[in-house]
Amino acid sequence: MNKDTLSALAVVVVGVAAFGTMLAFAERPTSCACGSSSNPWYPCLNNPCPLMVTLNLDSYHFNIPTNLTLNIRNNGASTTSLIAYYVKDTSGAQYANSNWPGPTIPPAAVTSINILIDGTAFTFQRGNSYTVSIVTSRNYQYSFTITE
């Protein structure tokens, strides 16, 4: 190798070493503000943005072949309103209530909701499974599989 090539190579090696040292000793954030973008070289270790709404099924009870009660818990950080529900049986028959004035559920609260179907597509039958999907006003959908 000639002298010019060695000089250029030395500059590149020193530059890479200096950059690597900067990365190794730079302070990495443990968390970032909610909604902020993170530097790709130093990703946030904790995501401080909690899910605003997380719905969980605490329990359920079949009342009659066209009525079901769900006890839904909001484990999220904000209040949510329920606006629609869909019930599907294992054969794919579905009942939809897409214009439902459902309840509003505050954080950490459990709310009982009645799910009514018209009995035309199917009715709740002992031993069968059903998928109930609940839609929130923020257009999140939560699905629960239940068995009569």
Number of strands: 8
CATH superfamily of the largest domain: Immunoglobulins
Order of helices and strands: HEEEEEEEE
| CATH architecture grouping of the largest domain | Sandwich
Produce the secondary structure layout.
Elements: H1 3-25, E1 55-64, E2 67-74, E3 80-89, E4 94-97, E5 104-105, E6 110-116, E7 129-136, E8 141-147
Antiparallel strand pairs: 1-2, 2-6, 3-4, 3-5, 3-7, 7-8
Describe the fold and architecture.
A hairpin with a 4-residue loop joins β7 and β8. Strands 3, 4, 5, 7 and 8 form a 5-stranded antiparallel sheet that branches. Strands 1-2-6 form a 3-stranded antiparallel sheet, with no helix packed on it. The protein has 1 helix and 8 strands. The longest helix is centred in the N-terminal third of the chain and has 23 residues. It folds into 2 domains: 49 residues, no CATH class; 93 residues, Sandwich (Immunoglobulin-like), CATH 2.60.40. It has 148 residues and is of the alpha+beta class. The mean pLDDT is 80. 16% of the residues lie in helices and 38% in strands.
